[in-house]
Write a structure and sequence with these properties.
GO terms for molecular function: peptidase activity. Helix content is 31%, strand content 23%. The protein is α/β, with parallel strands linked by helices. The protein has one domain: Class I glutamine amidotransferase (GATase) domain (Rossmann fold, 3-Layer(aba) Sandwich), CATH 3.40.50.
Length: 169
Amino acid sequence: MTKKVAVIVTDIVEEIELTDPVKAYEDAGHTVEIISDEAGKMIKGKNGDEIKADKGIDEVNADDYDALLVPGGFSPDLLRINPKNGAFAKAFMEEEKPVFAICHGPQFLVETDLLEGKELTSFVSVRKDLENAGAIVKDEEVVVDGNLVTSRTPDDLPAFNRESLKLLK
């Protein structure tokens, strides 16, 4: 069964943490939409690549999607500036829809106020933020807690994609 995955992202994203999962999801037959500040925005990646946003945050609703991907880089921190982004992610968490976050991505999920007691992992520099939000942080290539899948770095993408795809089935 095909699922629709939202990818929430803005400038300075770690490109491979966006493109690699998106390719895995699309290869498995799922639909992916890139969501940013506004539709058509050219998102500037950390390594200079540009990715075009399909939709803007003001025109989307979590009810229209089956899962959420939050790639890393500095994008997750910048996403925290607009409260609409956090509200969008919070809806996925509240409805217990799959949420996939890698590297710095879990840092953005602090905005949901729903990390208390959740087991997850992330890039080392944001682990204290996650602990302060009540999360149980582990140092493993992939951590699955219910519908939440998290990983640490691009090196963990194979495990991250594998576990994400299991939840999309």
